[in-house]
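$ ./design --mode recover --in tokens.txt
reading tokens...
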């Protein structure tokens, strides 16, 4: 099988300059399936995008250093541009970047452990990519962080090594911290999954050392963070980006775990549920594992996690993992949707459907409109036109 005229294996080794793990091989096979599928069935609606014309999202370490600096400049730009969130909605919002944080906070219970979890987050990170490109001079496409490549020592990965081509380090080290109980609300007597502290715990050093987080915390796992002046966490609470980059958590999203998830999830409900964890049975799942790999104040906050720009790297890998899963069997998985419209079906609600609306909320819908879940089922359909390598 040839891709873009290049033998697939050569492509795999040239793009995956660092490593080609088992799930990366599934990504290559999936891309071949996708090319065949489009050749046989045509491009998904609106029918203009093909794998050959699509933009290519890459692992951070495979971007050149100037490309990485361009990205870092663009996120700083988004974070210094005035936003559209009115003070009556979130007095703590200070930037266009914060418009994204606010919509995630406000929709938390209708976009996690729901039918639209994957599709909503696909739309959300795409909109962020568009603003970086259209308003902040970013020339590339959304980079992802491949959990499997860096799980042994995420703090020394090119994303978190603290260099001028990283998004800052994993937090300055704070000794003598306790384990965290994850998968349960803070303060719960149960502790199904104990996570030992990581190598950070404090404010970040490096390019984002002066970045001010203003929203939250709402449900952070870190103790000692200054509380928000408002009960809903949307008041003004300026502080640093705090992280605790954590290899104990990263271990739970290593290649073996991703590959097992991809190979042993026959239907979308199994896939999305296992991806989001089975906490009572001690299974963290790659979604939470990636969040706790970043850790810290925002990184561990279910609502406020997009306040740390690391969020978008993790969620691009979540989206890539879904894309890989879909591409293994496009006839069955191309439009597979299941689950309900409330968080963990609590309170009980109807099933999500392909014609359900995905919205980015009042501050972003003027720029991006609303779409349906169906529009988000292919990275070559709806508003999208991208692939992953
Ligand atoms: C660590 O947390 C547990 C409860 O989660 C508590 O029982 C224990 O005393 C704590 N240890 C320290 C050193 O704070
Ligand atoms: C942070 O601010 C200080 C003081 O203005 C400045 O010296 C430093 O260069 C800034 N660091 C970064 C990474 O922007
Ligand atoms: C969505 O699809 C369902 C099932 O196909 C249908 O019953 C419903 O009327 C549709 N809703 C809208 C708003 O089009
Ligand atoms: C987008 O969807 C939301 C939620 O369903 C709705 O309130 C809003 O009016 C819609 N916006 C547009 C532009 O259709
Ligand atoms: Cu989310």
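writing sequence...
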């Amino acid at each position: 099988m040839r891709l873009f005229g290049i033998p697939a294996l050569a492509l795999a080794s040239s793009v995956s300059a660092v490593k080609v793990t088992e799930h990366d091989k599934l990504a290559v096979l999936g891309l071949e399936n996708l090319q065949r599928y489009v050749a046989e069935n045509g491009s998904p609606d609106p029918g203009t995008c093909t794998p050959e014309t699509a933009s290519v999202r890459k692992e951070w370490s495979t971007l050149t250093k100037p490309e990485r600096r361009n990205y870092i400049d663009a996120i700083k730009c988004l974070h210094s541009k005035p936003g559209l969130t009115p003070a009556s909605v979130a007095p703590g919002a200070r930037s266009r970047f914060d418009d994204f944080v606010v919509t995630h906070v406000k929709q938390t219970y209708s976009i996690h452990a729901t039918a639209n979890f994957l599709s909503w987050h696909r739309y959300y990170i795409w909109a962020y990519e568009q603003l970086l490109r259209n308003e902040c001079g970013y020339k590339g496409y959304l980079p992802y962080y491949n959990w499997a490549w860096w799980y042994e020592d995420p703090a020394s990965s090119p994303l978190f090594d603290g260099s001028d081509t990283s998004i800052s380090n994993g937090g300055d080290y704070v000794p003598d911290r306790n384990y965290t109980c994850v998968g349960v609300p803070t303060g719960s007597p149960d502790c199904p999954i104990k996570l030992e502290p990581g190598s950070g715990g404090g404010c970040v050093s490096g390019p984002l050392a002066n970045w001010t987080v203003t929203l939250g915390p709402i449900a952070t796992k870190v103790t000692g963070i200054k509380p928000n002046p408002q009960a809903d966490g949307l008041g003004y609470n300026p502080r640093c980006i705090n992280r605790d980059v954590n290899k104990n958590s990263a271990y739970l999203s290593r290649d073996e775990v991703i590959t097992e998830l991809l190979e042993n999830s026959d239907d979308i409900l199994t896939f999305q549920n296992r991806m989001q964890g089975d906490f009572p049975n001690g299974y963290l799942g790659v979604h939470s594992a990636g969040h706790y790999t970043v850790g810290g104040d925002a990184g561990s906050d279910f609502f406020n996690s997009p306040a740390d720009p690391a969020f978008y790297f993790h969620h691009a890998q979540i989206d890539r993992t879904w894309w890989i899963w879909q591409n293994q069997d496009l006839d069955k998985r191309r439009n597979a949707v299941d689950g309900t419209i409330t968080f963990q079906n609590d309170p009980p609600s109807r099933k999500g459907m392909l014609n359900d609306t995905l919205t980015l909320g009042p501050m972003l819908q003027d720029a991006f409109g609303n779409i349906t879940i169906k529009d988000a089922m292919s990275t070559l359909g709806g508003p999208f036109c991208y692939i992953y390598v």
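exit 0
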